[in-house]
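Sequence in, structure out. First:
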Amino acid sequence: MTTFAPTSPPDLPRTRGDLLARGYVPRSVKAEMQENLLGRLRDGLPTLPGIVGFEDTVGPQVERAVLAGHDFVLLGERGQGKTRLIRSLIGLLDEWMPYVEGCEINDEPTAPVCARCRRLAGELGDGLPIAWRHRSERYGEKLATPDTSVGDLVGDIDPVKVAEGRSLGDPETIHFGLVPRTNRGIFAINELPDLVERIQVALLNVLEERDIQVRGYNLRLPLDMIVVASANPEDYTNRGRIITPLKDRFGAEIRTHYPLELELEIQLLEQEADIHAVIPRHLLDIVARFTRGVRESPAIDQRSGVSARFSIACVEELSGAALRRSAIAGDDEPVARVGDLIDIVPSLRGKVEFDVTEEGYEDETLVLLARQATADSWREYLGGQQARPFLTHLVEWFDQGNTLATSDVMSSRAILQAIGPMEGLGAVISAAEPGMAESPGLAASVVEFAAEGLWLTRRIDKDDDGVTVTYGSNAAEVDDDDA
């Protein structure tokens, strides 16, 4: 994980003697994180900033694991924020940590463990030079892949150092792997079951005895770190498993989940999506309901899960559709519309694993779920008394033989000119978007939302030729209660 750490403050001690003179007391990583976490809890500060939907479920379990000094595994489907959660643990470390200058494994200045630093400490005493590492540099991460070797994780003989004339038995000829290089920090392993079993064995000592052994060296290097891993449920991946001795060495197994409430799903979209256009609130609500519908659909392979990246990509595609229309139609403000959602469904298909029985009907399934979400959102936003006058006038307008055409390149002005000044338009905009300032783009988006909902509730008709959508009168009589 590439980091760009700030430069350490110039007033920090630069030798071991100066460090001790300032009252420095060494602490283990776990003790450091425990103290900082307790401080945040006492002050009422967020312990896992940037994590949405875990405040009352996963968060307390992680806090208990950290306070217990446990290594732990996060188990959950893809896109549930496991990696984001692990990386947020960096915030529980001290901002700056002293270490022996030039040490590959970040040795504690008062008690170095590697051969090089012990030698220097013996030679220089309190003059041992120290440097400072920012907490963002104290995090190591490895994506488990079948080709990962013991040397990658633990270390191996460095042939260059041997070629320089050092003895093959010299401990300083070792090239340390990712684990020891994260000494005095947090080491994360993503998708742990993908690590072949013989490589998982190499981690047994790290988790229990807190040391590493490299090849045939008579070397036991004590490590100070917290190890966190992530994994998908084994019944989905089928690519491997966490071996029983390794699983037993993790102090806790914590199950993650998707946002449990619709509002949290929307909050996640607002936080994570890279949006460059106006996405009205009612569209965020539709996308959130759409995502939840996909996760619950029997047509979807639920063992794989539906990642939060599905909904985030959906919102970003809506933003792109609005920007494209604005450039083509000349709208002053790019605003997404509900009609854009159906157009982007094919681009989302690759993010979902379908049940084998649905082969050939993937797009149709997603379109149906998107329309169900739109209908539910329409009832939520426009089903009240505030929107009813405009909806009544709009149905009457269609019954008079008028039609409303819209497309992915039709300007907002064209839509508003088509319906003309209609009583209740301001009220329906306020009902759908109470927190947004009125604009032609927003008004056109709400009008299209209103028309789409009337069609979904069978109040009007709709014709779609693949390019232009035309709303018109529905000859069949439908009871007003259907809306």
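Second:
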Amino acid sequence: MKKNIVLFFIVIASSFVVQPSFADKHTLQDVSSKIEKLSQGLVGRIGVAAQEIGGDQVIAVNGDETFAMASTYKVAIATKVMDLVDKGELSLDQMVDVPQNIYVAGEVAIAERFPYPGVQFSVANLIYAMITESDNTATDVCLGLVGGPAAVTKNLRRLGIKDFRVDRPVRGILMDFYGVPAVTPEAIVEAISNNPALVAAQANPNPKFEADPRDHTTPNAYLKLLLAIDNGTAMSDESRKFLQGVMSRTRTGAGRLKGLLPKGTPVAHKTGTLGGVANDAGYITLPDGRRFAIAVFTNSSETPSADRDRAIAEVARTLYDFYYLTAQSK
């Protein structure tokens, strides 16, 4: 028994050690190949794009393929909100009514916490709920504040970002995914009770949904958004600090980008999950203070959720080691 325990800890520890064979190979092709191999069998389809902040080389795997974003698209919505804040058309302390008739079902939702009318939130708190808890009601309220999906997509084009579409509020996305006429908490419960297949649909891939080009992006396009936020193109420095600060408090996806990184590694990110979709994107800080932006999208997966998380975690750790070792070898 003791021997087995020791072996267990050796296996676990190996996930946190840079292997010599990898340490000796510091080429973009090596990293891309390693990422593809690591993800095999864990997810259906994977797309990755990453770049060191201040660098000029992009590491990509299927970087120009399109993927369903799920809730990662909420960063694009937050970006447009911050643009309007910078223009003085909105303010973070502005109070906004959240009527019950726009409530949307969600894992941790305003709709479930505030069952009575008369709810107001500041714009800052709406962004916080949208990003850190992926609250769907907060998302649709923010989307309404900025002028709808078309306004978000127009802002992306202003930033020179193509191959990135925001087409529907979360309510519309969920209605299309589940094939239900409404997505209030009560309606979802009723629909599932009448159709047990919907329970499986929450974790199984939906080919028809994923084939729909709406609310899709490419890893390379999403990386451009992350870089535009960070370099001041998308918003002011004050707004950047606010948004990245919120992203650093994200509570979802602990096993994804953060899953295999050294304990305490700063990560500011946003996850997305729906059916066969499991995504995570954001910023990772290295021990020497350098950072890199990363977007990992996985679609069409029939594997357990733990495998999907593991694939994203393996990608993040591989890139973390690459960027850190590259600097150490200079």
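Remark: The chain has one domain: 21-328.
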